[in-house]
Design a protein that fits this description.
Distance between the termini: 51 Å
CATH class of the largest domain: Alpha Beta
Oligomer: single chain
Radius of gyration: 26 Å
CATH topology of the largest domain: Secreted effector protein pipB2 fold
Number of strands: 8
Helix content: 10-25%
Number of domains: 2
Largest sheet: 4 strands, antiparallel
Shape: globular
Length: 198
């Protein structure tokens, strides 16, 4: 039976008898790019920064400009490792209608969606809420696209963020009830708390 050679404890210590290296040269070799191995976690599973999704996030919608017919909204989303913002134009009535349908959805109604602007470089905000299982758990789906680009821009210049998240019905109801007054007053901000780990 052949025994396997013991694995070196650190990568910055070249194995004994490495071709072309005398023991006096080993310290110099370690300075030329060998790195120390990290100990394996107790559960045996390596984790990356993306695995740390236990931070709660938020979605906010704010009126940043208005006139007699139109309002400009700014949406900010912060979900896990993903963050983004976009601005888009819509009408007050569109926001009020979405607010009403969102309240009905939070109370058990049909899925609902809000779309403002366009993904052609002028700015886009898309929000959709739906149930994902028989227990009635709710997910939100956000699509954002950057604006402020010239008419002759390339399609690749439009930055986009698309992300799904989990949300509680009570938080969605609170968010929905803040949207209508915000649109009516043409000022203010509505926040939605996103479920941790969502």
């Amino acid at each position: 039976m052949t025994r396997r050679a013991a694995r070196p404890k650190y990568q910055d210590q070249p194995p004994a008898g490495w071709p072309g290296l005398e023991s006096s040269e080993a310290p110099a070799a370690s300075r030329r790019g060998f790195r120390r191995l990290q100990p394996r976690p107790p559960d045996g599973k390596w984790k990356t920064a993306v695995d740390d999704q236990n931070l709660s996030g938020e979605l906010s919608v704010e009126v940043v400009w208005s006139d007699d017919q139109m309002i400009e909204l700014e949406a900010l989303v912060n979900v896990g490792q993903w963050r983004g913002q976009a601005r888009a134009y819509t009408t007050r009535q569109e926001v009020i209608t979405f607010s009403e349908s969102l309240v009905q959805f939070a109370e058990g109604g049909s899925p609902t969606e809000f779309v403002a602007g366009s993904e052609d470089g002028s700015g886009f905000i898309g929000l959709r809420f739906y149930r994902i299982d028989r227990a009635g758990h709710i997910a939100g789906y956000v699509r954002l696209a950057s604006g402020g680009l010239s008419f002759d821009h390339r399609p690749e210049q439009v930055s986009r963020l698309v992300v799904e998240f989990r949300v509680e019905a009570w938080a969605l109801d609170e968010f929905a009830r803040k949207l209508a007054p915000m649109a009516h007053d043409k000022s203010g901000r509505a926040y939605l708390v996103i479920e941790a780990g969502g």
